[in-house]
Amino acid sequence: MTIEFNYNKKQVLRALRYHFFSKKDVRILLLVVNGFALASALLFYFKTVTPLAFLISSFLWITLMLSFWWILPLKIYRSSNTFREHLVISFRSDDMLITHSGGEKLWPYSSFRLMKETPDFFYLYVDERSFFLIPQDVFEVVEDSKSLRELLRKKIITS
């Protein structure tokens, strides 16, 4: 099976956000900071802390949310040429061949340690931080998407 596509910027940014928010340490950090912000708001309401303390905690919360929601995904999108390339991927029995204007890369399925699926993408993880995205909307026929899903599930560990 062979697919051709260009990445959609909005979908890629959403995929990167999903990646960040799916990490356990990021979720814990967000819970702690949200709890801290809520506690500071309550303490400010009961006049236990000064307005400056409340303002600083609010700034911390806003900065963290902007970082994970906009700054990090945009930075990664802009720094990766892959998201701006026209890609052709040929899925074969033991590997996939990725072709773009800069050349081609042969990736055996054994080099991926995990596969996740969302309604927009297949995430093929090389390690904890590195992954390759395959958009699901490039499949014209639903059976092609299903057959790729089955191939990836056979060859790569799924979560």
Structure description:
The protein is of the alpha+beta class. Helices cover about 50% and strands about 25% of the residues. It folds into two domains: about 1-5 and about 85-155, PH-domain like, CATH 2.30.29; about 10-80. The protein has four helices and seven strands. The strands form two sheets. The protein has a four-stranded antiparallel β-sheet, with no helix packed on it. Strand 6 and strand 7 form a beta hairpin. Helix 1 (about 10-20) packs across helix 3 (about 50-80) and helix 2 (about 25-45) packs antiparallel against helix 3 (about 50-80). It is elongated, with a radius of gyration of 20 Å. The relative contact order is 0.16.
Brief sketch in words of this structure:
With 159 residues, the protein is an alpha+beta fold. The protein is built from 4 helices and 7 strands.
Spell out the blueprint of helices and strands.
Layout (H helix, E strand, L loop, with lengths): L1 E5 L2 H14 L1 H22 L5 H29 L6 E6 L3 E6 L2 E6 L5 E4 L3 E5 L5 E5 L6 H14 L4
Antiparallel strand pairs: 1-2, 2-3, 3-4, 5-6, 6-7
Helix pairs in contact: 1-3, 2-3
